[in-house]
Task: inverse folding
């Protein structure tokens, strides 16, 4: 009985060591995450093989696993930039991005876990200043926002693509101009709209006048043709045809042929 405690203590120590060993040797990677393996005695960060994917993994207890989120993320940035004429513009933008999965080891080794602050945000700021500096405040306010957004995205992507970051989109959410400039632009846009409306009314009136002129000319030509074709014989013939039609009317009493003007029939009615 006295030997049991002496035998049980080493076993207990071994069990504790095993539990610690196993707990230090297991890593669980969550959904939308990946792990970068760091080998303490094997050359540091593993960069020549894919990162550890989702699920349960066994690693040596003296190694480490650094977990990164690899699903799409969004970062917001407010900037003050200058337009082409030197006016200060406030730009509110965001970016959709994610780390390059197959190069996650290189990203950790060369940029670190704070790669967003070290690489992505400075690049967006630089691209925004470069792009906005090509446009006037009026262009920024009205017609060029989509073009600016596209150019900032392309310039940012060109840089961060070599920094193991996958850029999916850059969104320009708001462009704020100085109040005096904004009011001047809005006033100018209203005046341009009024001018366009006035030109439209003038064009419409011009087309209506042309239509009336063409209609009048057409009627004049038709009358000329009709006048040229109406001879005395044709008029008499038409008069006789009309007289015959009237003679058939129940209200007609007496028709005296050849007694009217120009020899046309004369119709005597009830009165």
Result:
């Amino acid at each position: 009985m006295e030997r049991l405690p002496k035998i049980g203590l080493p076993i207990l120590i071994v069990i504790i060591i095993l539990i610690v060993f196993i707990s230090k040797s297991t890593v669980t990677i969550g959904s939308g995450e990946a792990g970068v393996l760091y080998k303490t005695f094997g050359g540091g960060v593993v960069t020549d093989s894919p990162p550890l994917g989702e699920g349960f993994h066994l690693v040596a207890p003296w190694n480490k696993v650094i977990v990164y989120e690899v699903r799409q993320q969004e970062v917001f940035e407010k900037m003050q930039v200058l337009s082409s004429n030197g006016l200060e513009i406030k730009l509110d933008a965001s970016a959709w991005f994610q780390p390059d999965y197959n190069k996650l080891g290189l990203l950790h080794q060369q940029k670190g876990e704070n790669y967003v602050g070290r690489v992505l945000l400075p690049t967006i700021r630089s691209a925004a200043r470069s792009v906005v500096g090509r446009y006037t405040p009026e262009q920024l306010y009205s017609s060029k926002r989509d073009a600016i957004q596209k150019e900032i995205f392309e310039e940012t992507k060109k840089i961060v693509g070599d920094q193991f970051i996958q850029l999916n989109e850059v969104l320009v959410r708001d462009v704020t101009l100085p109040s005096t400039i904004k009011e001047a632009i809005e006033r100018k846009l209203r005046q341009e709209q009024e001018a366009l409306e006035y030109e439209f009314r003038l064009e419409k009136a011009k087309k209506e006048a042309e239509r009336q002129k063409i209609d009048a000319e057409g009627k004049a030509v038709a009358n000329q043709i009709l006048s040229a074709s109406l001879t005395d014989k044709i008029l008499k013939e038409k008069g006789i045809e009309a007289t015959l039609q009237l003679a058939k009317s129940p209200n007609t009493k007496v028709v005296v042929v050849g007694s009217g003007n120009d020899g046309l029939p004369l119709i005597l009615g009830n009165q």
